[in-house]
């Protein structure tokens, strides 16, 4: 995020942009190397938010019945945040599993499949928000 803010500054030169892009690329590569080296550790230690989501769903129903409109909105936002985190964790796990493929073409195919699946899920969730 810091890199984006730096690039949005008005007085930035092309050289500074190039330097920021190199730093950003190196940061991403370093993060990817860390994830890859700790792949199994990451997959085994993913935080599960199911109990929080279950509890929030119950609280939302209670608050809705009691007419606490703002509490319902607050808790729905929190519930969506947990759902987003869960979805991100699943996506990362799927990507890490796809990296086990022997060729880059197989990896690419698996990655496209997971991204498409996630996008369809996001569309369904968005439609649910519009209707709910």
Could you characterize the architecture of this molecule?
With 132 residues, the chain is mainly alpha-helical. The chain is 84% helix and 0% strand. It contains 6 helices and no strands. The chain has helices at 2-7, 14-37, 39-44, 50-66, 69-98, 104-131. Helix 4 (50-66) runs antiparallel to helix 5 (69-98) and helix 5 (69-98) runs antiparallel to helix 6. It is extended and about 60 Å long. The model has no long low-confidence stretch (mean pLDDT 80).
pLDDT < 50 stretches: none
- Average pLDDT number: 80
Q: Assign the structural class, choosing from mainly alpha, mainly beta, alpha/beta, alpha+beta, or little secondary structure.
A: mainly alpha
Please give the share of residues in helix: over 70%
- Gyration radius, rounded: 20 Å
Order of helices and strands, N to C?
HHHHHH
Distance between the termini: 32 Å
* Total domains: 2
Assess the beta-strand content as a share of residues. Answer: under 5%
How would the global form be characterised? extended
> Please, how many helices?
6
> How many E-type strands?
0
Question: Main beta sheet, described?
Answer: none
């Amino acid at each position: 995020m810091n890199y984006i803010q730096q690039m949005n500054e008005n007085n930035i030169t092309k050289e500074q942009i190039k330097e920021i892009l190199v730093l950003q690329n190196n940061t991403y590569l370093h993060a990817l190397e860390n994830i890859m080296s700790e792949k199994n550790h990451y997959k085994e230690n993913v935080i599960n938010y199911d109990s929080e989501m279950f509890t929030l769903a119950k609280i939302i129903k209670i608050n809705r019945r009691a007419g606490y409109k703002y509490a319902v909105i607050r808790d729905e936002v929190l519930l969506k945040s947990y759902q987003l985190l869960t979805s991100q964790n699943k996506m990362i796990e799927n990507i890490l599993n796809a990296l086990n493929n022997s060729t880059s073409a197989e990896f690419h195919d698996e990655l496209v499949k997971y991204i498409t699946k996630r996008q369809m899920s996001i569309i369904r969730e968005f439609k649910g928000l519009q209707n709910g």
